[in-house]
């Protein structure tokens, strides 16, 4: 039994990190890396994936990312997914994360571009991305000046301009420094792997 794990939101300057794990019960077709699918296709696949698998999705807020660092938040999310899905499923589970590190977790395998080649990781990629995008769309009306629904918290030119004009909101990651604002890095993040 394979559990695919992937994240969305590692790089944005606002909004949460979203990490998902998926173990299929029934097959779902037309899967791919979420970044290679249109928003419409991701939304279409989202309920199909949820109906045909055991899954768990973890969110880490901008505040948690600032306090703990992105690597710690990722590691905690992965461990929560592993523990939750072990309790839901009988039998041995192999855990596979998209990317080039296992975050110091002995029972976690990793593979670069697994989100494009392993269906469980593709599905996790879609669950993580759609969940995070929906969150950013949901909060956008409360933060109209930032247009979160358009860029989902990534550091686009218009987003950086809005930060220059209005400062950061409580959804922004203060620890993510912006060269465009003349900010220096505030210490090197601890490497967990």
Automatic annotation (TrEMBL):
<dbReference type="InterPro" id="IPR024567">
    <property type="entry name" value="RNase_HII/HIII_dom"/>
</dbReference>
<feature type="binding site">
    <location>
        <position position="7"/>
    </location>
    <ligand>
        <name>a divalent metal cation</name>
    </ligand>
</feature>
<comment type="similarity">
    <text>Belongs to the RNase HII family.</text>
</comment>
<dbReference type="GO" id="GO:0043137">
    <property type="term" value="P:DNA replication, removal of RNA primer"/>
</dbReference>
<comment type="function">
    <text>Endonuclease that specifically degrades the RNA of RNA-DNA hybrids.</text>
</comment>
<dbReference type="Pfam" id="PF01351">
    <property type="entry name" value="RNase_HII"/>
</dbReference>
<keyword id="KW-0963">Cytoplasm</keyword>
<dbReference type="GO" id="GO:0006298">
    <property type="term" value="P:mismatch repair"/>
</dbReference>
<feature type="binding site">
    <location>
        <position position="98"/>
    </location>
    <ligand>
        <name>a divalent metal cation</name>
    </ligand>
</feature>
<dbReference type="GO" id="GO:0046872">
    <property type="term" value="F:metal ion binding"/>
</dbReference>
<keyword id="KW-0378">Hydrolase</keyword>
<dbReference type="GO" id="GO:0005737">
    <property type="term" value="C:cytoplasm"/>
</dbReference>
<dbReference type="InterPro" id="IPR036397">
    <property type="entry name" value="RNaseH_sf"/>
</dbReference>
<feature type="domain" description="RNase H type-2">
    <location>
        <begin position="1"/>
        <end position="188"/>
    </location>
</feature>
<dbReference type="GO" id="GO:0004523">
    <property type="term" value="F:RNA-DNA hybrid ribonuclease activity"/>
</dbReference>
<dbReference type="GO" id="GO:0003723">
    <property type="term" value="F:RNA binding"/>
</dbReference>
<dbReference type="InterPro" id="IPR001352">
    <property type="entry name" value="RNase_HII/HIII"/>
</dbReference>
<keyword id="KW-0255">Endonuclease</keyword>
<dbReference type="GO" id="GO:0032299">
    <property type="term" value="C:ribonuclease H2 complex"/>
</dbReference>
<keyword id="KW-0540">Nuclease</keyword>
<dbReference type="InterPro" id="IPR012337">
    <property type="entry name" value="RNaseH-like_sf"/>
</dbReference>
<keyword id="KW-0479">Metal-binding</keyword>
<protein>
    <recommendedName>
        <fullName>Ribonuclease</fullName>
        <ecNumber>3.1.26.4</ecNumber>
    </recommendedName>
</protein>
<dbReference type="InterPro" id="IPR022898">
    <property type="entry name" value="RNase_HII"/>
</dbReference>
<keyword id="KW-0464">Manganese</keyword>
<feature type="binding site">
    <location>
        <position position="6"/>
    </location>
    <ligand>
        <name>a divalent metal cation</name>
    </ligand>
</feature>
């Amino acid at each position: 039994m394979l559990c695919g794990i992937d994240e969305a939101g590692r790089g944005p300057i606002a909004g949460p990190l979203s990490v998902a794990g998926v173990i299929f019960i029934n097959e779902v077709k037309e899967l791919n890396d979420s970044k290679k699918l249109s928003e419409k296709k991701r939304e279409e696949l989202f309920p199909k994936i949820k109906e045909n698998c055991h899954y768990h999705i973890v969110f880490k807020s901008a505040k948690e990312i600032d306090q703990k660092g992105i690597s710690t938040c990722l590691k905690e999310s992965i461990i929560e997914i592993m523990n939750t899905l072990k309790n839901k499923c009988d039998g041995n589970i192999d855990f596979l994360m998209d990317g080039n590190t296992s975050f110091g977790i002995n029972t976690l395998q990793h593979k670069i571009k697994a989100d494009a080649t392993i269906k469980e990781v593709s599905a996790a990629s879609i669950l993580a991305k759609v969940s995070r995008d929906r969150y950013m769309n949901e909060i956008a009306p409360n933060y109209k000046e930032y247009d979160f629904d358009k860029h989902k918290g990534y550091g686009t030119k218009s987003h950086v301009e809005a930060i220059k004009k209005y400062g950061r909101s409580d959804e922004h990651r203060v620890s993510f420094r912006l060269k465009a604002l003349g900010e220096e890095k505030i210490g090197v993040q601890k490497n967990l792997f």
